[in-house]
Specification:
The complex is a heterodimer. Chain A is built from no helices and 11 strands. By secondary structure, chain A is mostly beta strands. In chain A, strands 2, 4, 5, 6, 9, 10 and 11 form a 7-stranded mixed sheet that branches. Chain A is globular and about 40 Å long. In chain B, strand 3 and strand 4 form a beta hairpin. The chains are: A mainly beta, B mainly beta.
Amino acid sequence: DGGITQSPKYLFRKEGQNVTLSCEQNLNHDAMYWYRQDPGQGLRLIYYSQIVNDFQKGDIAEGYSVSREKKESFPLTVTSAQKNPTAFYLCASGQQETQYFGPGTRLLVL
Amino acid sequence: DAKTTQPTSMDCAEGRAANLPCNHSTISGNEYVYWYRQIHSQGPQYIIHGLKNNETNEMASLIITEDRKSSTLILPHATLRDTAVYYCIVRVDEDSSYKLIFGSGTRLLVRP
């Protein structure tokens, strides 16, 4: 099946721990995006990448890091510097004019 | 900051048309209007987008006013599965890329 996969669906993080969220797409899209969604709110852009080995900060990049070593993959690391990481994280990929979203990962801090 | 304003919530009867309004009074001439919807705890689903002309696809119609300061998403025959949060979004172009600026959306409830 073609599409965007995110894993895991739920992730628990201990205080001071870094965690990495996976995002994979087999749509051959050049661009990939990471968003954060808090309860009752819209999506906010964390990082995006237009091409392999290149990425740019979005509106709320502090406390997060990314890499884009392969076209298909755009993992997001939530570092210990992110003081309020509990949220729903959404990955998207796009070509030309439209972004398509994955199913999301819900991160909870213990 | 979001560049769109939408009602917080709306409802409509199953089988009737759902008309979701959106104000984007500060939109620039080359900025597109996009609509996505999100069913609880899922990723947003693309619906439709447009620049100046009205658009229609298998899911919905998009009506953009002539001055482009507002638009309406129309679901012609709403079903219970159309219950979701609907986001009206302005696409902001930056160099060779673009950003979708999400607001809080409209929560649409389709009643049986």
